[in-house]
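Weekly structure sync, notes
Attendees: PL (lead), two postdocs, one rotation student
Agenda item 3: pending single-chain targets
PL asked that the sequence for the first pending target be pasted directly into the notes so everyone works from the same version. It is reproduced below exactly as submitted, 265 residues in total.
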Amino acid sequence: MDKISPKYQMKIVQNINDKLYELFKSYDDVEAYIEKWREVYDDFGNANFYIQYKDEERKKIDSKKTLHQVDGETLLKIAIDLGLETPDFIPSVPTFKNELKSSYETAAQTFDKAFCNVEKDPNLAIGLANSALESILKEILKDERLQIQYDSRDTLSKLIKNICKAFRLDNGDSLPQEVQTIAKSLIACSNAIEDLRSTKTEMHGKTQDDFIIKDPMCAYFVVNAVSTVGLFLLNYYMGKYPRQVNNARYEFEPDDDLPFSDTNV
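Predicted structure, written out during the meeting:
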């Protein structure tokens, strides 16, 4: 993750800089935020980077010059903390987030929280990603055209089985055998995500001796997997079951309080 190209670093610095002033508005607040990412190594003030200023009075931080000193891994962490897209590292996420925002508000909010916690709280990110995928599947299964009975208390493993059954992904004649094989793997993938959430995160309560995921790389992998699985299921659902439009026509009585409501005018 520290092998980030100079070209990408230039882009991510610009995006971070723009986002900081969008969020915080003032030089003081921007400086306070960036300062929180500084690590001072010793009593002499040696640190991983140093704050740069635009003025001699040192009242106006030069955030871009400051950020250009920051190593690539820390830049990536800052970008994720600010909710910025990082397509070079989690390529499915930007597209997936856009799809969710259009129709799945609850899942979108949950997934955003998962994305922002990948670095600082990996086990929380995994739990939230699992919950976001559950929310999407429940929304899809609400569609009566699928004719699938499900329980709102069902967890991810049961929900994904119902979705595959509804879409006939495991035995659909219209799909090549190879695609069916990949589709069947969705169940195994979803089961693994749920197992991670249940056994390797703090979502269900753990003791001191239990193993808890603390490696951000695992969280990156799971969040990206959820994005890939979620995107496929959403696109397949919308392709097979286009959104229904209510074409009902309504008759309105003229409102005397509205201008030009007199039909004789």
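Discussion points:
- The CA atoms of residues 130 and 205 lie 16 Å apart.
- The two ends are 71 Å apart (CA to CA).
Action: rotation student to compare against the earlier draft before next sync.
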